[in-house]
Amino acid sequence: MALPAPLHGVIPPVCTPLDACGEVDTGSLARLVDHLLDGGVHGLFALGSTSEAAYLTDRQRAVALETVVTAARGRVPVLAGVIDTTTARVLDHAKAAARLGADALVATAPFYTRTHPREIAAHFRHLRTATGLPLVAYDIPAAVHNKLTPALVRELAADGTLAGLKDSSGDDGSLRRLLVSLGGRTARPSGPAPGFAVLTGSELTADAALLAGADGVVPGLGNVDPAGYVRLYDAARAGDWPRAAAEQERLVALFAMTDAGPESEMGRSSSALGAFKAALQLLGVIEGRATALPQVPLSEEAVAEVGRRLKDASLAAGRPAP
Question: pTM (2 decimals)?
Fold first, then answer.
C-alpha cells in the first residue's frame, strides 16, 4: 500500500514470539498483529530492535516478515527492518523484504567499521535507488556507533532519498534541532521536506516529541499497550496536552517493567525484551515468552513483577485495556 505522507501515528516495532526451539511462533505473531491493530495503531515495524532482528537468521527474518505482512492484510503499512553491517548485505535484506510485500524499508547507517557522513549518504541513496521502496533512516548510535546529524538527515530528506527518520538516539536536543530545521512545529507541512516523517523511538518522551512537531511514535512498549500510545497520540493531535501528559505518565510507570530483570544477572535489552514478551504472555496474546540466545530469560520473580506493573497500569491478564 502507499505510505501516507508523512508517515504518522503509532507504529510499534513488533516483537517476534519464539517457540521452545527458538523458531518464530507464527501463530502467536499473527495474534500479536491483531492485538496491535485492535489497539488502533497506524502501522507496523517488523524486524527492528524490539523484534530481535539481530538475533534472527535470514530465514527467520523472512518468516517473521511474511507473517506480519499476511496478518496485517493491507490494513496498515508494514515497514521492514533491513538492518545489517554493509550496503551489500542490507540490499539483500531489502530485496527479500520487497518480495515479501513490505511497504517501506528501515535501515541504519553501515556499522562495524566507522563510516564518514558522505559514505552514509551514499549508502542510503544506493538503497533507495536500487529498491524503489520508501526508505526510513533508523538513528540508533548506541548500536551502530554513528549519529545521523540533523544536516545529513535534512539533506537526504530534501532530495527524496529518505521518507522519514526513526530517532532512537536519545538525543532530544538533536531531534529538536532537526524539527526546527525542517520548519518547526507549525511550518512543517510547507518546510523544505513536506512529506518527510519524523518518528520518535522513545517510550518515555513521546508527548514531548509530538509537542515539538514529531509525526509519530515507534514504541517497543506499544506491543504491550498499543491503545495507550494511540490515546496519547490522539490527545496530542487534538492539542490536549494535559491528557497526553497524563497518558505518558501512566506509560512511564508501565515501562518500569523493563527493569524487572536484575542488572547484576542480565543485560538491559534482555530484561526489556523479556518483560515485553512476559507481559504479552500474561495478557494472553502470545504463547511463550522465550527470547533468542544468548539472552538470559526472566525469572518467575521477575515475571511476577511484570504482572504487577500490568495491574497497576489497568491492564488485566488476558484482557488488554480498551
Answer: 0.96
With a cut of 90, say whether residue 224 has pLDDT above it. Answer: yes
d(CA 214, CA 116): 27
DSSP-derived secondary structure for 226-238:
HHHHHHHHHHHHT
- Name the pLDDT band for 160 (thresholds 50, 70, 90): very high
CA-wise closest residue to 229 among 194, 255, 190: 255
- How far is it, in rounded angstroms, from Cα 304 to Cα 302? 5
pLDDT of residue 317: 60
CA separation for the pair 167, 191 (Å, rounded): 19
Mean pLDDT of 111-131: 96
Provide the residue ranges of all domains of the chain, joining segments of one domain with +: 9-239
Shortest CA distance to 64 belongs to which of 111, 101, 106, 107? 101
**Which sign, positive or negative, has the C-alpha torsion 241, 243, 246, 250?**
negative
For domain 9-239, give its CATH number from 3.30.460.80, 3.20.20.70, 2.60.40.60, 3.30.70.270. 3.20.20.70
